[in-house]
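> forwarded from #structure-qc
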């Protein structure tokens, strides 16, 4: 064979090999890597599959805080290849998920009998591969309770504050006065220093004392003006009561969110929320009406509406009609009226912007 023919043959062979290499998928056998950017459903599917496949060697899974990659703990190093094949990073640890769950269940059972008040909770920490018991400060009784678990899987952490149940203050829901009487929440607001308040009707706050809501104590009456006006405020002193921009629509739908306090024009739609009759709507008929409440006195500057109300609705939220939306403008708090929600009636509200101005408050909006 001539030198020229040999060179031509080698060139043709090289081109064929290159063509085959280009045609083959270079990463056909390499699994996609699961991380924080992956579809949640894909991560969940991998977790379910590995939990079943690894059985007693499985030790939970998590997204690494530094790399974002899905990490799966295993107690047997020989199972690491199965984790990598699923697109995750394997980490060999001491305790299986079943072992940690068993230790936590044991603590749950002991707590039914007795647990020191200084122990604020316990949970499985899969990243540390431990069960963590939170103890207030360095309380000896709490530390002893955790140590009594008798497991090397348990560690304690210092807690600086005890947890507490939280509940929301929502417009239109019931409030009760320690001196007797039920009214409704108008709106949540705060001053420039961050102190929180509930706005409601003045003939309600005139009852004085401490006020409670659906989840417990709210705080004391901090201001009241009635008659002449019909507004008052309650200082939110409870750390468990959460101020919200919400108003309860009861059977009318999900809660609406207060976005501001732009005034609805005459003829415009408004709705009110109260703890007696729930969510009722109507239209604005006039501004700045003076109303004679007889023995209770005369109140000026009220807005007249066709929305109905009944006793107990007092102080509740009046807002713009949201239509098919969920965002509203605060209008005022229910003062009084005539008629009822069976035959219809007229209801007056105290405009909220006057209250905000008098007490130097801003609404809690969302």
């Amino acid at each position: 064979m001539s030198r020229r023919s040999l060179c031509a043959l080698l060139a043709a062979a090289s081109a064929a090999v290159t063509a085959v290499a280009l045609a083959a998928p270079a990463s056909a056998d390499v699994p996609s890597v699961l991380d924080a950017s992956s579809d949640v459903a894909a991560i969940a599917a991998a977790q379910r599959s590995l939990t079943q496949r690894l059985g007693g060697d499985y030790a939970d899974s998590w997204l690494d805080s530094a790399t974002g990659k899905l990490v799966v703990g295993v107690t047997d190093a020989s199972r690491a290849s199965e984790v990598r094949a699923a697109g995750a990073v394997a980490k060999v640890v001491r305790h299986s998920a079943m072992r940690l769950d068993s230790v936590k269940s044991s603590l749950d059972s002991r707590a039914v009998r007795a647990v020191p008040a200084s122990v604020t909770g316990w949970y499985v920490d899969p990243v540390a591969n431990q069960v963590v018991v939170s103890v207030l400060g360095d309380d000896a009784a709490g530390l002893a309770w955790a140590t009594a678990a008798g497991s090397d899987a348990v560690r304690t952490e210092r807690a600086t504050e005890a947890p507490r149940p939280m509940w929301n203050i929502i417009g239109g829901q019931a409030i009760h006065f320690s001196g007797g009487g039920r009214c409704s929440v108008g709106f949540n607001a705060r001053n420039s220093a961050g102190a929180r308040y509930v706005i409601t009707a003045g003939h309600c706050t005139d009852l004085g004392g401490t006020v409670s809501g659906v989840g417990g104590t709210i705080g004391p009456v901090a201001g009241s003006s009635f008659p002449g006006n019909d507004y008052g405020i309650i200082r939110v002193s409870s750390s468990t009561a959460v101020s919200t921009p919400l108003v309860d629509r009861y059977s009318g739908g999900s809660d609406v969110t207060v976005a501001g306090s732009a005034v609805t024009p005459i003829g415009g739609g408004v709705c009110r929320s109260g703890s007696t009759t729930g969510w009722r709507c109507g239209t604005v008929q006039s501004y700045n009406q003076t109303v004679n409440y007889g023995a209770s006195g005369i109140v000026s500057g009220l807005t007249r509406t066709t929305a109905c109300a009944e006793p107990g609705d007092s102080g509740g939220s009046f807002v713009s009609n949201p239509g098919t939306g969920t965002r509203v403008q605060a209008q005022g708090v229910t003062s009084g009226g005539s008629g009822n929600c069976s035959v219809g009636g007229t209801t007056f509200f105290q405009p909220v912007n006057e209250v905000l101005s008098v007490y130097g408050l801003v609404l809690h909006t969302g």
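QC bot note: DSSP finds seven helices and 23 strands in the chain. Confidence is low (pLDDT under 50) at residues 1-30.
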